[in-house]
Known about the structure:
It is a single chain. This protein is mainly beta. It has one helix spanning about 120-124; strands at about 10-15, 20-25, 35-40, 50, 55-60, 65-70, 75, 80-85, 90-95, 100-105, 115. A six-stranded antiparallel β-sheet has the order 1-2-3-10-5-8, with no helix packed on it. A three-stranded antiparallel β-sheet has the order 7-6-9, with no helix packed on it. The protein has a two-stranded antiparallel ribbon with strand order 4-11. Strand 2 (about 20-25) and strand 3 form a beta hairpin. The longest helix has 4 residues, at about 120-124.
Amino acid sequence: MQHQQAMDQSEHWFREGCFITEWSNSALDPAASIARARVPAGSTTRWHRLDGITERYVILQGRGRAEIGDAGALAVGPGDVIIIEPGERQRITSIGDGELVFLAVCTPRFRPEAYVELTIEDAT
């Protein structure tokens, strides 16, 4: 059994367009990472992809519209889980009156160099 001490859980603004709190992201556990994401009401994250990483959005609070790959917009709310394959374009919008809060669970763990911001042309 391994036990990981709590990380510095201060929230920070990420260039994607949301607030992030890292819950678990360590070389001691390269298989996965967990972060809490918060998208302010009416905001949309930037189009992006993660190279070599599968990401899961576990919606905790609020209502959103997820756009993943070519699947079209998907309404999401608490309890929904969205699986995003490696390299798939993605963004999410908070569509309710309040903020959208979800866990981002990445396998293998999130690494900044895997994040690729997409231009409008790349995203269409």
